[in-house]
């Protein structure tokens, strides 16, 4: 195995899990996955510990989230945390972290992981990672693709091309979130996988791809590399000048020699309260409810009391089915599970009105 | 007009409006009627002020509710409040209050009013009261009957007999809460009215009826009358020994010469959160919601933030219709409007489990 570095992207803005998630408490800091009691970001880091030690783990987050993120990962050294001065999407984030890795090990392989996904089969996940790391070490930018289990329209898809060998395949093309008809075709064809947003590459390989496809970013990263004692000021200056571009759009869809490792390990991007309900322990009536909940003639609900400030409270649901009920110190949300993706729209509305920041 | 006394029965136990209502904060102390900002009991007393002054107004409530009830009616003198040592239903309550009136004015007419009803047309109500008072002054025990507007199965009915004159009719019979079929028949026949629970009688007339039909109660009331300085102790002693019987069962259904005054004045017994929604101001989507509520794609909901302790809270409903959402310091209730009568069952369950007292 090559020297492996982990870069965890932890810059979420906290819209889909409102009111549990907020700008100051984004999704990755919540324990809404299958591992209750553990935040999603803590699960993410713990999951790869057998493959990558703390001193080679980097957490890229927003400056305003640094303290809260450190608190969620108390066993990592301070040097693990990168605070982006301003959010400039995944290309800037990955480019910056990769440049930092390159200083230490140009031939090191970087594994980029979202901080807020859930994985049921952790051994299966690590086996897939090992395949992807080998593919990356051989020179490809490699992504993990998840074998679809349903015609989901919430994910991007990757069309799988010819096998390169050892479990890795050429990427035929990236496709945006499809409509239901296409999603069904993709599922039936067995030639498409979900884009997991997990990437693997040698530091040097990615820097060259950025040089080719995003020269402005490459130039900015070089300025940071050359800044010496001025690094902090220059980093801020560079970030402020960067365009907001995703790594998929900026590099992956343009670069040659992109590989994909298809795999299945019980993956979920935990994209809405509906996902949280799916992942949660449920009683015989399908309710995932905290102890403070009293349910009468109520089925398949998600009920969470996430208040921290006040005393005991009884959350009583009578004669309602398939609802998400989320109580925090600042807000109460009631939304049918099947409409939980609309929370994003609600949050936009609340931000417009100045109700939340 | 004879000398009129008002007796307001305010001994509710607070089950149907949980979590707003509790044993210590029963329904009559809430402002859930059409007069928002005013408690139901305050509306009740204010409504009859043009007919009956404060010094002839008695409020019969439980001892444990005395302080809160006085606070809700700060303009009444302390002597207006009667604290029942233990709850023994309406016959004991009315008998006790009537015996007290009789000491002051045996020929005085007593008007007994529930403390927790809503009345839209207050002038119409007072006109009906004047008719009932005249009927009572002529010697009948008289009740106000509400002309039905729908086949409600939640009320007792009164069959209206021959006209006695001046708007009063003989009661042909009292009937219990009917099933839907019968309720429809009653409505179509136009010979039935709802039993409003409002009674009018001369003090002396009621005492004689109690002597005839509930001699044990009459004897107890006489012991209280004779107790002199020992009145408080004897009252407690008498109440503890009394059976729990309603005035309807104990007297009204047995006495001869019962009259009814049919009337319409926008009456509601505010029997459930559904009634509270019906009485509330609503927006163009049918939502009756506090300012703290944010509703997106949500219709015909009742949303109340009745917390007193904590700060501002956003109550967000997304994509839900016809729900009651009630938030208090101690609890959150979510129930469909059409199932809001099930709150009673919920409260019984919570009491069994010791979650509430």
3D structure, described in words:
Two copies of one chain form a homodimer. By secondary structure, the first copy, chain A, is α/β, with parallel strands linked by helices. Chain A has two domains: 4-268, Alpha-Beta Complex (Spore Coat Polysaccharide Biosynthesis Protein SpsA, Chain A), CATH 3.90.550; 273-353, no CATH class. Chain A is 32% helix and 26% strand. Chain A has eleven helices and 17 strands. In chain A, strands 6-9-7-8-10 form a five-stranded mixed β-barrel. In chain A, helix 3 crosses helix 7 (215-225) and helix 6 crosses helix 7 (215-225). Chain A is globular and about 60 Å long. The A-B interface holds A 19, 294, 296-297, 309-310, 312-320, 323, 325, 327, 329-336, 339, 342-343, 345-346, 349-350, 353, 355-356 and B 19, 294, 296-297, 309-310, 312-320, 323, 325, 327, 329-336, 339, 342-343, 345-346, 349-350, 353, 355-356.
Topology diagram in text:
The structure is a homodimer of 357-residue chains.
Chain A lengths: L3 E7 L29 H9 L8 E6 L3 H7 L8 E4 L4 H16 L4 E6 L3 E2 L2 H16 L3 E6 L10 E9 L2 E8 L4 H10 L2 E11 H11 L1 H11 L5 H11 L5 H6 L5 E6 L3 E2 L4 H7 L8 E2 L3 E4 L5 E4 L8 E5 L4 E5 L3 E6 L6 H11 L4
Parallel strand pairs in A: 1-2, 1-4, 2-3, 6-10, 12-14, 13-15, 14-16
Antiparallel strand pairs in A: 4-9, 5-11, 6-9, 7-8, 7-9, 8-10, 16-17
């Amino acid at each position: 195995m090559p020297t492996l570095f982990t870069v965890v992207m932890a810059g979420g803005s906290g819209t889909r899990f409102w009111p549990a998630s907020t700008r100051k408490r984004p999704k990755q800091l919540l324990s809404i996955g299958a591992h209750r009691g553990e935040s999603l970001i803590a699960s993410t880091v713990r999951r790869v510990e057998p493959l990558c030690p703390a001193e080679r783990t980097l957490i890229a987050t927003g400056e305003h989230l640094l303290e809260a993120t450190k608190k969620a990962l108390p066993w990592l050294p301070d040097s693990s945390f990168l605070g982006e001065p301003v959010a400039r999407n995944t290309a800037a984030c990955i480019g910056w972290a990769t440049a930092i890795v390159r200083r230490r090990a140009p031939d090191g392989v970087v594994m980029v992981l979202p901080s807020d996904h859930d994985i049921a089969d952790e051994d299966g996940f690590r086996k897939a990672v090992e395949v992807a790391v080998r593919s990356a070490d051989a020179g490809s930018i490699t992504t993990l693709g998840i074998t679809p289990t349903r015609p989901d329209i919430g994910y991007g898809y990757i069309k799988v091309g010819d096998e390169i060998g050892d479990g890795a395949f050429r990427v035929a093309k990236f496709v945006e979130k499809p409509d239901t008809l296409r999603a069904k075709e993709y599922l039936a064809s067995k030639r498409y996988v979900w884009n997991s947003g997990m990437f693997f590459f040698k530091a040097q390989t990615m820097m060259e791809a950025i040089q080719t496809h995003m020269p402005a970013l490459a130039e900015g990263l070089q300025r940071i590399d050359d800044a010496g004692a001025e690094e902090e000021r220059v980093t801020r200056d560079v970030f402020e000048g960067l365009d907001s571009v995703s790594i998929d759009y900026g590099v992956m869809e343009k670069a040659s020699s992109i590989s994909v490792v298809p795999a299945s390990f019980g993956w979920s991007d935990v994209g809405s309260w509906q996902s949280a309900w799916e992942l949660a322990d449920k009683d015989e009536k399908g309710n995932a409810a905290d102890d403070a909940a009293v349910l009468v003639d109520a089925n398949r609900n998600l009920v969470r009391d996430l208040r921290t400030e006040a005393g005991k409270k009884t959350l009583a649901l009578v004669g309602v089915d398939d609802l998400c009920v989320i109580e925090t110190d600042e807000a109460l949300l009631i939304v049918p599970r099947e409409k939980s993706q609309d929370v994003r729209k609600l949050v936009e509305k609340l931000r417009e009105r100045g109700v939340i920041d």
